[in-house]
């Protein structure tokens, strides 16, 4: 009977340790989720940079064409 009580206590201790470990893992997952969200935002911003550069190039080309057209009309 004493052995059963000791074994029961060991099992309960192990379960308590497992419960604590699971709680710790959950907290770490929450932290990683937040970091992942921030990384996704930064990646999206980096992906949009080339598009903004192309927009700038297109605006510059259109402005140059309009400037050339106006210059040709003035001569």
Walk me through the structure:
This protein is mainly alpha-helical and 75 residues long. The mean pLDDT is 89. It contains one helix and no strands. The protein is 97% helix and 0% strand. It is rod-shaped, with a radius of gyration of 33 Å. The longest helix is centred in the middle third of the chain and has 73 residues, at 2-74.
Contiguous helical run count: 1
- Average pLDDT for all residues: 89
Ends apart, CA distance between termini: 111 Å
Largest sheet: none
* Secondary structure category: mainly alpha
Proportion of helical residues: over 70%
Low-confidence stretches: none
Task: Return the string of H and E elements.
Answer: H
Which band does the percent of strand residues land in?
A: under 5%
Envelope shape: rod-shaped
Give the strand tally.
0
Whole-angstrom Rg: 33 Å
């Amino acid at each position: 009977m004493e052995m059963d009580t000791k074994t029961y206590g060991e099992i309960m201790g192990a379960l308590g340790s497992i419960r604590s470990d699971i709680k710790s893992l959950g907290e770490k997952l929450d932290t990683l989720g937040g970091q992942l969200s921030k990384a996704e935002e930064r990646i999206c911003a980096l992906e949009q940079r080339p598009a903004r550069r192309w927009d700038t190039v297109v605006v510059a080309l259109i402005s140059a064409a309009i400037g050339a057209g106006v210059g040709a009309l003035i001569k």
